[in-house]
Amino acid sequence: MDLAQMREQYSEVGLREEDVADDPIVQFERWFTEWLSTKPYDVNAVILATTDGDGWPSARAVLLKGLDERGFVFHTNRRSAKGLDLDRSRRASLCFLWHPLERQVRVVGTVEHLPDDESDAYFASRPRGAQIAASASPQSEPVADRAELERLMAETEARFGPDETVPRPSYWGGYLVRPVTVEFWQGRRSRLHDRLRYRRSGPTPGAGWVIDRLAP
Question: Has residue 189 got a pLDDT over 80?
């Protein structure tokens, strides 16, 4: 089935309560597998939204680097603007837009640091250049010019021999977004789109899920 056929089928069938999984992570995996089959550029790109200490919102694209029964994982510099926002509020929203399939997934959840061993394992898997850049860049801080960034990169690279392991900086690591609500949106030709929202039935992470249909 090509992309046009997939879009036509999903728009025609829509999103029905009897067809979705009881758990939003399982449902997300189903949709993500279908998205992956279209071979898109940056398949795991997602918009991360945070708020600062004054309540100002901020959004930017990051890459989803993990998904399991706990929730959604990405990595960043914890001293960056988004890292400071996350560590202050411990809340975030994620928005996946898969426009070719007329689908969107929105996640709202609590945020915590990924365990160090998991952050270490992911950092070790990154290309060496990315490891050095993560160590060198004072992310989100003003710099004089491009030359300053290149100087910081060269100085950091010089600290490590060509065969020396680049350790994960203490200020760089993973974040886990534990979902409180997950909304699946399926576009329909009639513009009467389908929206199903999963929400926790209780305050604890282990609570079950309730599914609500929302008006488009």
Answer: yes
Neighbouring C-alpha atoms within 13 Å toward the C-beta of 29: 11
pLDDT of 80: 97
Cα 116 to Cα 168, 172, 178, distances in angstroms:
10, 10, 17
Phi-psi region of 78 (alpha: psi -120 to 50; beta: other; left: phi over 0): alpha
DSSP string of 125-154?
HS-HHHHHHHHH--TTS--S-HHHHHHHHH
d(CA 214, CA 15): 12
Q: How far is it, in rounded angstroms, from Cα 184 to Cα 160?
A: 46
Domains of the chain listed by start with CATH number: 3-214 (2.30.110.10)
What's the pTM value of the predicted model, to 2 decimals? 0.93
The percentage of residues in the chain with a pLDDT greater than 90, rounded to a whole number, is: 84
177 pLDDT higher than 90: yes
What whole-number distance in Å separates Cα of residue 84 and Cα of residue 77? 9
Is residue 101 within 8 Å of residue 34, measured between CB atoms? yes
Instruction: Name the residue type at position 203.
Output: P
